[in-house]
Design brief:
The complex is a heterodimer.
Chain A (H helix, E strand, L loop, with lengths): L3 H31 L5 H6 L8 H10 L6 H13 L13 H36 L4 H13 L4 H15 L20 H36 L1 H8 L4 H23 L1 H15 L4 H10 L3 H29 L1 H4 L6
Helix pairs in contact in A: 1-13, 5-6, 5-8, 5-10, 5-11, 5-13, 6-8, 7-8, 7-11, 8-10, 8-11, 10-13, 11-12, 12-13
Chain B lengths: L2 H7 L12 H25 L31 H36 L2 H16 L2 H11 L3 H12 L2 H15 L2 H8 L4 H38 L10 H11 L6 H28 L7
Helix pairs in contact in B: 1-11, 2-3, 2-11, 3-4, 3-6, 3-7, 3-9, 3-10, 3-11, 5-6, 6-9, 7-9, 9-10, 9-11, 10-11
The chains are: A mainly alpha, B mainly alpha.
């Protein structure tokens, strides 16, 4: 960013864009949940539904404000959201905000570990594959990426579970801590032990994209004139990769990692379900199945903010990398 | 950046040895993929109800010559169930991919031809869709449709149109200002004639390739949604249903219930990727003569 003014106006525009997107998503999400054919009282009570009288049902409906038309409900909800109140979760019986806070803390550990692992491993593999193009390693990396880039996350999780937890019993089968131990008393080692398989599930898939992307960048570097010159001066391929390749490939890789937060979140939902990990993803599924509309809406909002922020960071990094975009010339 | 790019980068595996030009090799690959799809449908149709009967003497058998994929807790043959499940999954994938492509085409066209305001709205919609995590959006849409087959198809259709819509929009915008289209207009051709002779031949391949490359996503997301419990009912045993059943039996060590159907699913998903990549190469003007 060359001068203060354009920098500020860029940030202001990004912020405005984020706010508009979040508002649209909030409206859309509300419309979607309001048109759902599911009867919230039945979804909430499950089989106990048979046991309540029509008057009791009426009282529940009134208490949740479901007797009012959707437009009134929407304005009430929107006003509360702007004040920072997302309502109460029906399933967990506490404010949506605190459910999201607790659950996201667990999910964040999982996602951060997977994100870092897949970023580092993918980057190293990509650099090596690009440096030694057409070698055995390169073919192996490409084959790996081709097969695993589109394999279902939950299936990878199930296979890991069957092999490493059930067959070899190296890792626990579920949850974020040992059975019967209160969440606060779980030690760091235990926590990590429970995190490894779910994080590996996410990383196995995340590695593919970043490796291929970095490989392309490295090949570009090796096709350049400065790489040819360095080669003529007697520099080895690994040397060129180290001195010229890394700095060219690193920022795009980081950018890509930030832009893929949406996929990471989706993967986490599936992985948490497989490993019964008590994170935000599991809460999303629970909310959807048991018709906990306030929680579902809260999570939709929160995850959108998460992804939009990631995209904004990626966009910012892009501008920092590419001087043409920075100067606002616009590349086609 | 995703599987499409990957498929394009990969030299078609297996057919590396010289079989004539790249074009004829790619044609071979297309025919190979199509044969396998036809084979799957024929097999699923011919096998009938064989092996699906409950048979308690054959419960929980690991894979063997008689049952290459093993049997489940009711003694049903997993290979037959996988083949039947794949057929259902492919059918749902087809419906979802087709609706999504039509949606993408309509919106891309509208954005490129109906003026600035419509364009602004469509690009805004694209922005919104790519700003929500796919899976949360899928859950929301399927929730609002009350789950089931329609829920899955709508969920996939409404969340996957952005990529193709962008391509269609950019393509038309570019064609509108292309020299030969302008010349054609100056020569007094009617818009409809231009649309049919200049736009359609360029868009049809995009449409076809986009459709085929959407399949894998559609199938996988249908399986994922079903696994989470939003998708298909148990009496429609698509691959996602088989895998969620397998999840309940995984801690007892019946690994084959999960592994074999998953590998089969992955195989077909990759087949679609290859087919899409090959068709793209054959139809794109730049590479079709290589």
């Amino acid at each position: 960013m060359p001068n203060m003014n354009s920098c500020l106006s860029y940030l202001a525009r990004q912020l405005l864009r984020m706010i508009v997107i979040i508002a649209v998503v909030a409206t859309l999400a509300f419309v979607l949940t309001a048109t759902a054919p599911l009867d919230p009282v039945t979804a909430y009570l499950g089989f106990d539904r048979m046991q309540i009288s029509p008057e009791q049902q009426q009282r529940i409906i009134q208490r949740w404000g479901l007797d009012q038309p959707p437009t009134v409900r929407f304005t009430t909800w929107a006003k509360n959201v702007i004040r920072g109140d997302l309502g109460d979760s029906l399933v967990y019986n506490e404010p949506v905000i605190s459910v999201i806070q607790k659950r996201f803390a667990a999910s964040l550990k999982l996602m951060a570990l997977a994100w870092t692992l897949s970023g580092i491993i993918g980057f190293v593999l990509g650099v090596l594959a690009g440096t030694y193009q057409h070698s055995l390693l390169d073919n192996a990396v490409r084959m790996y990426a081709f097969v695993l880039a589109s394999s279902p996350t939950f299936w990878i999780g199930m296979v890991l579970l069957a092999v490493f937890s059930v067959k070899l019993s190296w890792f626990p089968i579920c949850c974020a801590g040992p059975m019967g131990v209160p969440p606060d008393a779980v030690s760091w080692a235990q926590r990590l032990h429970h995190l490894i398989l779910p994080a590996a599930t996410l990383s196995i898939i995340g590695v593919a994209q970043i490796a291929l992307h970095t490989r392309e960048k490295m090949i570009d570097v090796f096709m350049s004139d400065y790489a040819l010159y360095a080669r003529a001066m007697g520099e080895s391929r690994l040397g060129i990769a180290w001195w010229h390749g890394l700095r060219n490939a690193l920022l795009p890789a980081v950018t890509l990692q930030f832009a893929s937060l949406g996929e990471l979140f989706g993967g986490a939902v599936l992985a948490e379900q497989v490993f019964n990990y008590p994170g935000l993803g599991q809460a999303t599924v629970e909310a959807g199945i048991r018709g906990d509309v306030p929680l579902l809406l809260g999570i939709a909002l929160f995850s959108t903010i998460f992804v939009v922020t990631g995209n904004a960071i990626a966009d910012l990094l892009y501008r920092l990398i590419d001087p043409r975009i920075r100067r606002g010339e616009g590349v086609a | 950046m995703n599987t499409q790019t990957i498929a394009r980068q990969l030299p078609m595996p297996g057919i590396r040895f010289s079989l004539g030009t790249r074009r004829s090799r790619t044609l071979c690959l297309v025919i190979f993929c199509l044969t396998i799809f036809v084979g799957l449908f024929l097999w699923a149709w011919l096998v009938g109800e064989n092996g699906l009967a409950v048979n308690f003497t054959q419960r929980n058998q690991p894979p063997s010559w008689d049952h290459p994929f093993g049997t489940d807790w009711l003694g049903r043959d997993m290979l037959v169930r996988t083949i039947k499940g794949l057929r259902i999954s492919l059918g749902i994938g087809m419906a979802a991919a087709l609706s999504s492509t039509v949606f993408a085409l309509a919106l891309g066209l509208a954005a490129a031809t109906l003026g600035r305001h419509v364009d602004l709205v469509v690009t805004g919609m694209i922005d919104v869709v790519i700003s929500t995590p796919h899976l949360v959006m899928l859950i929301l849409i399927s929730f609002s449709m009350g789950g089931g087959v329609v829920g899955i198809i709508m969920a996939v259709a409404l969340s996957h149109w952005t990529r193709l819509a962008r391509i269609v929009r950019a393509e038309i915008m570019q064609l509108k200002t292309a020299d030969y289209v302008r010349l054609s207009r100056r020569l007094g051709r009617k818009p409809l004639w231009i649309a049919r002779h200049h736009l359609l031949p360029n868009l049809l391949p995009q449409f076809l390739v986009g459709l085929i490359l959407l399949f894998p996503h559609a199938i996988m997301h249908a399986a994922g949604l079903t696994f989470l419990g939003f998708g298909l009912p148990p009496h429609m045993p698509a691959i996602g249903v088989l895998l969620s059943e397998a999840m309940r039996h995984i801690s007892t060590g019946y690994w084959w219930l999960a592994v074999a159907p998953g590998v089969a699913l992955l195989f077909f998903v990759k087949l679609f990727d290859l087919l899409g990549g090959a068709l793209r190469m054959l139809t794109a003007p730049k590479t079709s003569q290589e």
